[in-house]
Prior knowledge:
This protein is of the alpha/beta class. It folds into three domains: 60-136 and 264-441, 3-Layer(aba) Sandwich (Rossmann fold); 141-260, Domain 2, N(10)-formyltetrahydrofolate synthetase, CATH 3.30.1510.10; 456-538, Formyltetrahydrofolate synthetase, domain 3 (Roll). Helix content is 35%, strand content 19%. The chain is built from 19 helices and 25 strands. The strands form six sheets. Strands 1, 2, 3, 4, 5, 6, 14, 15, 16, 17, 18 and 19 form a twelve-stranded mixed beta sheet that branches. Strands 20-22-23-21 form a four-stranded mixed beta sheet. A three-stranded antiparallel beta sheet has the order 7-12-13, with no helix packed on it. A hairpin with a 2-residue loop joins strand 5 (122-123) and strand 6. The protein is globular. The two termini are 12 Å apart.
Amino acid sequence: MNEVASPAGAVETDWEIASRAHLEPIAAIATGRLGIPEQAIELYGRTKAKIGMDFVRPMLATAARAKLVLVTAISPTPAGEGKTTTTVGLGDALNRLGRRTAICLREPSLGPCFGVKGGAAGGGHSQVVPMDEINLHFTGDFHAIGAANNLLAAMIDNHIYWGNALGIDQRRITWRRCVDMNDRALRQIVTSLGGAANGYPREDGFDITVASEVMAILCLATSFDDLQRRLSNIIVGWTHVRRPVRAQDLKAAGAMAALLRDALKPNLVQTMENNPAFVHGGPFANIAHGCNSAIATALALRLADYVVTEAGFGADLGAEKFFDIKCRKIGLRPDAAVIVASIRALKMHGGVAKSGLGMENPEAVTMGFANLRRHLENLAQFGVPAVVAINRFDSDTEAEIASVENECEKLGVQAILCEHWAKGGAGAEDLARAVIGMASAGAADFQLLYPDELPLAEKIEIIATRLYGARGIELAKAAARRLEEFEEMGFGHFPVCMAKTQYSFSADPELRGAPSGFVLPVREVRLSAGAEFVVAVCGDIMTMPGLPRVPAAVTVAVSPEGQISGLS
Length: 568
């Protein structure tokens, strides 16, 4: 999501800058910038809207015409990289250069908003607005996703309570409840305590909403029919004779689809420079597939000349899943990629502690470049040309910037110094020109990392060895058996969605830079039959995060006039 710290020396907060933005009516943005007819605009106040499916459906039947640009990043650090901010700045810059451009972002989750990372609206003068509304309840999509997820959970327990005609084995229920908040106390729970009237006690647990399969389904569905089909195919558990139980067996899919009807419609907002931004869907890239909705991206590709989208965390997670899951599923072919790095983050990958980032250290930048180099090499495996965006902070020195530029030059890659945090689109025009050059040259030769027909374990190993630098994987025995079962059930053609720490190529968040030669531990695998991928859970990654010692929530307040403060 928003993976940027305010550049050193900044006086104003992101909220203070965003609060001064002049917002145009969103209907004017939709009609004037994208040619969306007024009758297709479903207003959520003056500055937010959904686009009606009566307009979306026929548009998706036409050919895409825009150039597709992916913004990704090096492995994240506490120093900040700036992927969301760069996405917004690049979109504004392309519009400044006369290219009709729309950006496509994910919606913020309340978990990180009140936890460590803050919101997901960008930063400085490169933000989507209204920042406070986007970061909080927005158009209610996440609430709808949570309600649909938990309706299915309630129907499972209700079915068992009223006689369990399907023969569901309570020990093998895999469907978990969800809430859009970091709450470690809910990771493992026991339900139905209090006597016979409350049902049969069993172990259960919560995931954060962004990790729910319902979120993934919403972000990959391309129509109401596709949405309901995918919901029907969700496998919630197994019977006593080891047969899968699906949502359709519980007759839950129709009601779930009803709850998600409006959530499926793409959300439209604007940047601070009044350019169109689709902000829709929000799966995390460390525990889910980390891309905004397929329907929003597909619509943007038919309305604009350039579409700039982001994928979560580093390129080993978000970009890989964007290519191998989203592009595979809906037939996207990206034209160019931008990989975001900051001098501060490269110094951390080079061994510098956060407390020492203010001191000039070009040697550490060069050492940390190993992380950026591997990400660039990984992008090359997909056949997508890339440019490096150096997200400038006030503390960066000329010698440190030159270190990155020199190392990129050795690889034949452009490194562009960007100042969009401070200057908005004007600070990213050089980056925009580089992107136009790459996309216009037609140099992309996009290819997936692995074919559908490979066994699931081989797909996991290819990602681990070719992208992460591992020498192999260590599959837990139970995980290996489950992969065999999934293949016997006919799911062997699914892509895999890696769930691992975002801070390292390995499963150890302390191994920064570009570690290699390690063994990647895969402790469990989960089947997402509706989303149509298999999740491989690596190391100690959790699907329900916890709050830090001092959560960001402690700084948030509401003034007597109703103005929210403290969001970042």
